[in-house]
Amino acid sequence: MKTPLRALLLTALAIAATFGLDPFRNYQLATTAACFAAVAGLTVLVGLTGQLSLGHAVLMAAGGYGFAFTASAVDGPWPLALLAGLAAAVIVSGLLGLLLGMAAARLRGPYLAGLTLALVIALPSAANALPLGGDQGARAPFFAVPEALSALIAVEQWHAWLAIAISALAVTPLVMLRSGRAGLRMRAVLDDETAAKLSGVDPGLVKAGAFVASAVPAGLGGAILAVATQQVTPGGYGLAFSLLLVVAAVVGGLGSIGGALIGSVLVVVLPWVVDQLVGALPADLGQRLNGNLAVLLFGAGLIAMTLAWPGGVARLLDRLRAARPKRRAPAADTGR
Amino acid sequence: MRDSKRHMRTAAALAAAAALGLTACSTPGDDDSVPGVTDDTVVIGTHQPLTGPAAAGYSTISAATAAYFAYVNDNGGIHGRSIEYVIKDDGYDPASTQTAVRELVTEEKVFAIVNGLGTPTHSAVLDYLDQQGVPDLFVSSGSLTWNQPAVYENTFAFNADYVTEGAALAQYAVEQEPDAKICVLGQDDDYGEGILEGVETVVGSNAITDVQSYTTSAEDLTAQIGAMMQAECEVNVLGTINGFTAMAVGTAAQMEWFPRWYVSSSGADYPTLAGYLGEDLAPVLLQGLVSVNYLPFSPDGEWVALFERINEEYNDGAPFTGNTVFGMSVGYLFAEALAAAGEDPTRESLVAAVESGDLVGNGILPLSYSADDHAAYRGVGITIVNEGVQDYVDAAYTVAAGQVTAVEPDPVPLENEGIPG
Lengths: 336, 421
Hints:
The structure holds 2 protein chains of 2 kinds. Helices cover 74% and strands 1% of the residues of chain A. By secondary structure, chain A is an all-alpha fold. By secondary structure, chain B is α/β, with parallel strands linked by helices. Chain B folds into 2 domains: 41-160 and 297-377, Rossmann fold (3-Layer(aba) Sandwich), CATH 3.40.50; 162-291, Rossmann fold (3-Layer(aba) Sandwich), CATH 3.40.50.2300. In chain B, helix 3 (60-74) packs across helix 12, helix 4 (94-107) runs parallel beside helix 5 (119-132) and helix 6 packs across helix 7 (190-203). Chains A and B meet through helix 1, helix 2, helix 5 and helix 6 of A and helix 1, helix 4 and helix 5 of B.
C-alpha cells in the first residue's frame, strides 16, 4: 500500500478510536500524538544518521511558541488561525533545526549531544530574556468544537482529532523521506562517510538536511501540545521531558516509526500509571515517592530494556513476527 | 483482489469502531446530576507543588487544608456531606498543572477546584476551567488575574493582591520613617511587579531609590543586594518568596548591612524563614521585620488555638506555620461557602454563595467578594517580628483605586468550633 493511503487509513482509524475514550484519555491521546511527532523525528535522526540530539524538547518549544504567537495574532476564522500557526511552527522549528544541523555537520558524537543539551538548559533563561512571556509562557488560542459537531463530541475529543491530523501531517512526509532517496543517503553517510563522499553524497548536506527534517515534526509536536493545552511554557519543555523523548525513541527502537509510536504511548501513560500506583500506597510513603518513582522506574526499565532487547520494542516485534510461520512473503518495505 | 478484500475488512472495522463510539462515553452533556456531589460526599480538588522548586515553601498548605476538612468530616460534615479533598502534585510546572487539573475535572469529576496554587501554574488552567464551567475558588496567589468577573465568572482570588500588599507596606514605611530611602527587590513576574506598583502608588515612581529583580532559577542575590547597599537603601520592600527573603536577609548580613526589611505576606512566614536561617540566627536577623497579613495569626488568638488543636489531631502535629493557618483558613472559607450553597448545592449555587457577599471568612478585615468583585481581601494588617514572635501591631490599611486608607482591624470571632453550618 502506498504510504499516504496507509497514513490516511491509520488517521481515520485513530480518529474513530477517540470515540471509545473518555475525555481525559482523549487528552492523553493528544499528548501522545504530540510526543509521537517529536519522537518520530528524533528516531529518524538518531537511527538513520547517528546524530544524537538531547534537545528535541527545545525544537518542540520553538514550534509551540511559533504556533502560539502566530495563531493568536491571526484575526480570522479558526481554520485560518490554525493553519497560520502550523506554518509558523514549521518555519520556526525548521530554521532552528537548520542552525543546529549546520553545527551538527561539523560536530560529532558527544559534542553534538552536549550542544543540544546546552540548548535545553538555556531554554528557561531564553524564555525570560527574549519576549516569550517568561515562566508564564505564551497563550495559544482555544479551538472550540465546531457548531456541527458540538452535540456529538467533547472538546478533548475535538483536540485529539486535531492532534491526530497534525501528527499525521508531520510524520507521513518523514516516512516517505525515510524510505526514499534521502533515507538511502542518510544510511550511506551513517555507514561510511568517506564511501558516501566517493559516491557523490555530501555528508554535511545530508546531516544538516536530516536535522531539519527531524526538527519540523518536533515543531509540529509542539504545536499539537499548544492546541491541546492552549499554552506554551518553558517549564513544559525541560531537561526531563527532553530526555524522555530520547527514552521513547530508544525504547521503541531507533529508526523505527512504529517504535516511536509505542515509545510515545509509554512515555505518556507510564507516569500516569505510576501516579495511580503511588496513590494506592500508604499516604506517607506515597507522598515521599511522588514525582520520583516515575523517573526511577523509567531508568530501571530502560536499563533492563537495552540489556534484554537492544533493538527496542520494534525489533522485538519484528523478531516475533519472523518467528511466526509465514503464510506469504514478507513485504519488502520495512518501513513499519 | 487481495488488496480490495483488505480494504473491505478495514472499512468494516472502521464502521464497527464508529458505531461503538456513538454509544461510548465521550459524548458531552449526557448527565443531569451535579458533578462531585452525592448524598454523603462532596469531592473537590486542587493542584499543589508537592515536589519541585516551590515545594519547600508551600507543600504544607494542602496538608493543612486536608486536616481541617478531616476535622469537619469528623464533626458531621456540611449538610451531612463529608468533604473529600483530592490533592494533585504539579511540581509548580504549568504543563503538569494542565494534566493534573484535567484529570481532576474529567476523571475525579470534582465539584470545584479549590486553592490551586501559583500564578504561572494556575494561569495555565484558567481558560480550561472557565470553558468547563468549574467553580475555581480561592486561588492561592496574589495576582490580579483572578479578579476578572466579566471574563472568568467562576474564578475567585484568596490572597490579598500584591499591589495592595506593596501599597500597605510602603504606607507603613512612610509613616514610620518619612525620610528613609525606599528600595524594592522583586521577583521578575506578576508578584514583584505588583509589589512595585503598590509601592509606586504611595511614594511615586521617582521616589524609589533603587529597584532590583531576580528570577526563581537564580542561585544567589549577591549582585542585587550589593547594588541596593551601594544605593544606600534604608527600607527594603521585598516581593520575594520565602527562600529568597531568607537569602536576601542572609546575604545582606554577610555584607554586614542591616537595613529595614518590609516583606510581602507570601515571603514573610517567620517559622518558614527560621527554617532557612537557623533557629539561633533567625530571631536576630529577622528582628523588626515588617510584613502584612490578613489571616488570624496572633499567637494568642482563638482561631490559632483551634487550628493548633486540629493540626495536632489531624495533621500528625506537623510544624505550625503561616502555611498551616493559610491552608486551614482556605478550608474554613470553602466549608462556609458550601454551607451557604444550600442543602442541595450546585455549581451555580456555590458561585452565587460566594458572590452574595454573605461569607465572612476568618480574616482580620472583612471579605470583599461580590458579583462584580472577585477579590477576597482589599486590605491588610501590619505584622512585626519581635524576639522571634510575629504578631499584628495596631495598624491596618485598605487600598482602593490607588488610595491607601488606615482602618481599624475587625477580626471575625470564632463560632461553633470553627464548623460553618
